[in-house]
Amino acid sequence: MAANPATAIFKVTLKEQIHIDKLPKHIAIIMDGNGRWAKQKGMIRAFGHENGTKAVREAVESASEIGIEFLTLYAFSTENWNRPKLEVQTLMKLLVSSLKKEISTLQDNNIKLSTIGNINALPVSAKKELLEVVEKTKDNNRMTLTLALSYGSREEITNALKEISLKVKNNIISPENIDESVIIEHLYTQNLPDVDLLVRTSGEQRISNFLLWQIAYAELYFTEILWPDFTKNHLYEAILNYQQRERRFGKTSEQIK
Ligand code: IPE
Ligand code: IPE
Ligand code: MG
Questions:
Q1: Which residues are placed with Cβ below 5 angstroms of ligand 3, an ion?
Q2: pLDDT given for residue 51 in this prediction
Q3: Burial level of 54, CB count in 10 A (0-12/13-18/19+)?
Q4: I need a labelling partner for 157 at 20 to 30 A (CA). Which of 9, 49, 149, 150 fits?
Q5: Ligand at shortest distance from the CA of 152
Q6: How far is the CA of 73 from the centre of ligand 2 (A)?
Q7: Rounded to an integer, what distance in angstroms lies between the CA atom of residue 163 and that of residue 216?
Q8: Which ligand has the minimum distance to the alpha carbon of residue 228?
Q9: pTM higher than 0.90, yes or no?
Q10: 26-51 tens-digit pLDDT
Q11: Are the CB atoms for 10 and 3 separated by under 8 Å?
């Protein structure tokens, strides 16, 4: 028997509930919980990292599908160098294999890859692969995917200060002319807008040295989901939550309306 359209239940998906005219321009994600995910399954941490790459694809595809312009993923922090050597090696190998595997996805979806952090600290093979993908995708313009690798916000700000001081010393900039825009131009993120929505998985509610300057007015969203379990719908949930908030930027609610 044919379904009666009058009684059919139309389920509105999370994706369909998103207001396309109120999208965050820049989403940043602290991808956390790979180790705990693996432990829960009685597996070694590397297994969690491997499965974390699937979640990266989910996040990248969902963000680009709905029209997010900038997605920044925290993949490896300056502090992560202090992990056991074998785990660091695993993460670097995974970076290389994922880049090799995902280049076609990036091209097919018109996504440009960029990086922030001290990529000179990465193993030669990882740096080489990374620069290759950055070069190959440089003309793509649907979304900019930025990987934070060997990234630390304090290091970034320290470097910016050094560069600016040198310019002052060499009379390229005068101290009176140092304003926020000068600082922004000296950060790794000079080509990125401020973060609108910061997501962290795994239940931890901290920033862990990520984009301290750039999240000054970001909306923060914490979820208990462990990173390898993160799916498209989790990103849509985060965006829907963001869209319910009133961003006042210091003004009153009445001024916003
Ligand atoms: C995030 O997962 C991946 C990186 C930091 C590289 P973790 O490896 O931090 O996982 P947990 O926090 O130990 O569960
Ligand atoms: C933050 O996760 C860094 C990345 C997600 C790459 P960590 O798991 O290293 O953070 P902390 O040290 O627990 O805060
Ligand atoms: Mg962690």
A1: 32
A2: 98
A3: middle
A4: 49
A5: 2
A6: 12
A7: 22
A8: 1
A9: yes
A10: 999 999 999 999 999 999 999 999 99
A11: no
